[in-house]
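Please decode residue identities from the backbone states below.
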């Protein structure tokens, strides 16, 4: 039996403790019971990422890529504030772009909690920020990773930037050494950068 056949299928699942199954984690179950006793069961209810329908992501979700490919005018503005500013390499810009998924997903969670709290207290809902932008950025990152050809690079990008695992943990899940995982990560960023270049046109 090969190692590939024993590996569990990858899925888009947050690794934050709030996403764990309470039935498999007695400490989390006890915490949920304590929160329920104070009427806080809404706190971890639902998943704001579910509303993104990430399985339906298409190339159209990439939207504006100026964050990765700033125009000459945008660079001029940056350099007017910081004259010695140098545009980072494309792979580094791609890494920052992919890192936006977990950031925006966390912001969406904060927004969802705030909305539920306002509803519980009978207050009018006041958005904390640009929810539409956060949703579109999450979908854009998924669109890039979906466009990466199947293989170890795509697997590592999924584990690292969508599931939130460290590269070391991703190496363990993939059954490779940590040194190999870092090499795969570097290649994955190159592949993702090429995807962005191609999508840019």
């Amino acid at each position: 039996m090969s190692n590939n056949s024993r590996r569990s299928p990858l899925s888009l699942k947050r690794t934050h403790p709030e996403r764990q199954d309470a039935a498999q984690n007695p400490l989390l179950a006890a915490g949920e019971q304590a929160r329920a006793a104070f009427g806080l069961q809404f706190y971890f209810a639902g998943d704001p990422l579910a509303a993104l329908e990430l399985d339906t992501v298409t190339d159209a979700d990439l939207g504006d890529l100026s964050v990765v490919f700033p125009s000459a005018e945008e660079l001029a503005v940056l350099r007017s504030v910081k004259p010695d500013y140098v545009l980072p390499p494309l792979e580094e810009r791609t890494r920052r772009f992919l890192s936006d998924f977990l950031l925006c997903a966390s912001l969406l969670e904060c927004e969802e909690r705030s909305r539920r709290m306002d509803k519980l207290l009978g207050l009018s809902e006041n958005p904390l920020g640009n929810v539409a932008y956060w949703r579109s950025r999450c979908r854009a990152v998924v669109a890039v990773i979906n466009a990466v050809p199947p293989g170890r690079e795509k697997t590592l990008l999924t584990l690292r930037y969508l599931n939130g695992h460290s590269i070391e943990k991703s190496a363990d899940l993939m059954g490779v050494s940590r040194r190999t995982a870092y090499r795969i990560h570097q290649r994955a960023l190159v592949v993702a950068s090429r995807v962005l270049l191609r999508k840019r046109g």
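Observation: The chain has one domain: 46-200.
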